[in-house]
Automatic annotation (TrEMBL):
This is Polygalacturonase. Keywords: Glycosidase, Hydrolase, Signal. One of its GO terms (molecular function) is polygalacturonase activity. InterPro entries: GH28_Enzymes (IPR051801), Glyco_hydro_28 (IPR000743), PbH1 (IPR006626), Pectin_lyas_fold (IPR012334), Pectin_lyase_fold/virulence (IPR011050). SUPFAM superfamilies: Pectin lyase-like (SSF51126). Belongs to the glycosyl hydrolase 28 family. SMART domains: PbH1 (SM00710). Residues 1-26 form the signal peptide. It comes from the Eukaryota. One of its GO terms (biological process) is carbohydrate metabolic process.
């Protein structure tokens, strides 16, 4: 495992021949996301230039994008319509997608957000969050947005969607934000989504946010933001099911992939879980977590599979995080075949992470965490092996570590630091450095070895 390389595909087109829609298979059950969402060929094609689009980097093309998508929405061509963006830099305000469409970026095409924050449209907060994630009240609409859609594809020849997020990051740093920053791409209440072969840059906030969605494929994408850019999560599947994320590179200022399902009392009331999410063949760099579950987990999270993950210069390799007041559950999470290098902390499973939306949350709404398996991990230059800390009145159970080898910086006796455990039970097999006593239960070792 040490020194292995991950080749991330950069194909200019994706061909999916299956038309089956169904749950994402368990990690290792297949090599690709094929079968989750059918890739459709659009015979009807239009260009943004047909609607007055100008790719000179100065002309504002908001009207052109909105008129082109209005045309797709109301003509309702059989099989949908492809909107072609030719090479050039197309400055635009936010716009909404519609069903049965493909947004196709040619090689050399850049869709770039205007930086007019004062006129950026506002929308209502997500019901599972109750308010904006950063500020009370509403939130700024994502740069590219969609609600209640089906059969939507964002793809091309590795063209770029650039959020020009620096103005938003500075507002966050200076504490002058009026409302929560916009995501780069957000799709709500939607199904049959493919995002592939596009570069995403400089998101104001989270990059790709499918929320209340099902049957979503995100692969062959590159997501980039400065290492110090605040809250620029890569991909955040949120209260969504049947999601597959694969063959991508993410280098951002926050978690590479973070699975979420709502925030405290609002997420509990909305009750929309995240389930059957597969993450595979991912590389990345971040000061925060490579693979994260949480911390917003109030609707419940289950059946999460991550494999073949390569992490370099990250804060925490794998981070499962929740808090008192969250309620909900995290169960049946399997993460395997992870290589990490130059990492502050290899593994963290913690019940005291994350803030609260308001003073009305119930501190007695305790999360239920059971069945977290981490196996086949090789870490080098890791400062601390890991921390696993449950809640004293809601211990984490069924934690399984198998074939986990974490090394510190080169030199005699540099074993990768130590493990810290509290209010947790489970088992360990072939773990170096040897974990805490709470994970040394011989009666649980067999089930740990046989876990999926």
């Amino acid at each position: 495992m040490p020194g292995r390389l991950l080749l991330v595909a950069a194909a200019a087109a994706v061909v999916v021949i299956s038309t089956t829609l169904g749950p994402v298979p368990a990690a290792g059950a297949g090599l690709t996301c094929s079968g989750i969402v059918p890739m459709r060929y659009r015979y009807d094609r239009i260009s943004i230039t047909d609607f007055g689009g100008v790719g000179d980097g100065r002309t504002v093309n908001t009207k052109a994008f909105r008129e082109a998508i209005y045309r797709i929405q109301h003509l309702r061509r059989r099989g949908g319509t492809l909107l072609y963006v030719p090479p050039g830099v197309y400055l635009t305000g936010s716009f909404n997608l519609t069903s049965r469409m493909t947004l196709y970026l040619a090689r050399g095409a850049v869709i770039k957000a205007v930086q007019d924050t004062w006129n950026w449209p506002l929308i209502a907060p997500l019901p599972s969050y109750g308010r904006g994630r950063e500020r009370p009240g509403g939130r700024y609409i994502s740069f590219i947005h969609g609600d209640g859609l089906h059969d939507v594809i964002i793809t091309g020849e590795n063209g770029t969607i650039d959020g020009q997020g620096s103005v938003w990051w500075n507002m966050w740093r200076q504490r002058t934000l009026r409302f929560t920053r916009p995501n780069l791409v957000e799709l709500m209440n939607s199904k049959g989504i493919i995002i592939s072969n596009v570069v995403f840059r400089n998101s104001p906030f989270w990059n790709i946010h499918p929320v209340y969605c099902r049957n979503v494929v995100i692969h062959y994408v590159t997501i980039l933001a400065p290492y110090d850019s605040p809250n620029t999560d890569g991909i955040d599947p949120d209260s969504s099911s049947n999601v597959c994320i694969e063959d991508s590179h993410i280098s951002v200022g926050d978690d590479l992939v973070a699975v979420k399902s709502g925030w405290d009392e609002y997420g509990i009331a909305y009750g929309r879980r995240s389930s059957y999410i597969t993450i595979r063949r991912l590389t990345g760099t971040t000061p925060f977590a490579g693979i994260a579950v949480g911390s917003e987990t109030s609707g419940g999270i289950e059946n999460i599979y991550a494999e073949n993950i390569n992490l370099y210069r990250v804060g925490v390799g794998v981070h499962v995080k929740t808090n008192a007041g969250r309620g909900g559950y995290i169960r049946n999470v399997t993460i395997s075949d992870v290589y990490m290098e130059n990492v502050r902390q290899g593994l963290k499973i913690s019940g005291d992470v994350g803030d609260h939306p308001d003073e009305y949350y119930n501190p007695n709404a305790l999360p239920y965490v059971k069945g977290i398996t981490v196996r086949d991990v090789w870490g080098v230059k890791v400062r601390e092996a890991g921390l696993i800390r449950g809640l004293w009145n809601a211990p984490f159970t069924g934690i399984c570590l198998s074939n986990v080898n974490i090394r510190g910086w080169p030199g005699p006796g540099r074993s990768g630091g130590r493990w810290t455990c509290e209010h947790v039970s489970g088992a360990a097999h072939e773990v170096n450095p040897w974990p805490c006593a709470e994970l040394a239960s011989p009666q649980h070792t067999g089930s740990c070895l046989n876990s999926p």
